Amino acid sequence: MVNDPVHQLQLYLRRAGNAIRSPSHEGRRINWSDEAARAHFFADGEEKVARLVAQIEGYTGATLESRTALDFGCGEGRLALPLAQRCAHVIGLDVAPEVLRQAEENAKRRNVSNVEWMDASRLAELAGRYDLVISIYVLQHIPSREGEHIFTTLVRGLRPGGVGAIHVTVRPSRALRAMFHWSANSARAAYNPMNLVHGLDWSYPYHLMHSYSLTRIGRLLAAEGVLEWHARWYGITKEWRSYETATIYFRKR
Asked: How far apart are the C-alpha atoms of 159 and 137, rounded to whole Å?
């Protein structure tokens, strides 16, 4: 067993990146040769980015024009490419090389040239290069302590005055229900043969969910000099079942 924390973090990231295949998530499989499917994919992304931008500007008072944006867990570019229409430059990070290759192909199809794609392991190298960070539907697939480390790295790397929007699942308000929901999902997924296809261990659950404490998130933000932040609360939905989710909006001093 490898105990190096950096290696363990990369392992968790790669497992999470390969395992996200839910139809509602960035990593879903679509037929990229299907023009209608591509159009729907990016229409959805443009709608999400429009809402996200309005919320970031509303909560932080900042404008996003001319900013350099970092999209952590960018997938095939659903949010990164529409964001590139509003920002001077966008950096998309993901853990799966095939996903980044598809993102590059999508950028070429859409004639977007102000985006660069990188492996997520290079996150620390980017400190000071961006003044907008987003990460949507990503951290819930990473164990919370590793996710908190990533959260801190994302915030620390922001330039002064930078803004962010990071989505998390929060501790279930109905712990017993959540435990049974997780157990049922894990039992169904534990021997999912798709794990082999995605390069995961046979026994690795296919779709893990990890929750975060908003109290701990607040402390992490304070440690990086962010004393004012907002949580847009979504509550329990049919999609997330036992889990409540929130997007954290913040601005660095």
From this structure: 23
Domains within the chain, CATH numbers bracketed = 5-169+207-251 (3.40.50.150)
pLDDT tens for residues 134-173? 999 999 889 999 999 999 999 999 999 999 999 999 865 5
d(CA 26, CA 71): 12
Contact status, residue 45 vs residue 81, Cβ threshold 8 Å: yes
Dist. CA 222–CA 81, nearest whole Å: 31
Distance of alpha carbon 226 from alpha carbon 158, whole angstroms: 11
What tens digit of pLDDT does each residue of 226-248 get? 999 999 988 655 555 557 899 99
Query: What are the φ and ψ backbone dihedral angles of 160, each rounded to 5 degrees?
Result: -55, 135
Stronger pLDDT, 123 or 13, i.e. the higher one = 123
Burial 42-71 (b: 16+ CB within 10 A, else e): beebbebbeebbeebeebbebebeebbbbb
pLDDT band at 6 (very low <50, low <70, confident <90, very high): very low
CB–CB of 233/244 below 8 Å? Answer: yes
Q: Binning pLDDT at 50, 70 and 90, where does residue 33 land?
A: confident
Cα-based distances in Å from 144 to 118, 138, 169, 170, 213: 23, 11, 10, 10, 9
Structure tokens at 142: 């990473």
Distance separating alpha carbons of residues 233 and 177, to the nearest angstrom: 20
Neighbours of 127 (CB within 10 A): 13
- For the entire predicted model, the pTM comes to 0.78
Point out which residues pair with 115 in neighbouring strands.
Answer: 90
Structure tokens given for 63: 């404008």
Is the separation of the CB atoms in 164 and 249 below 8 Å?
yes
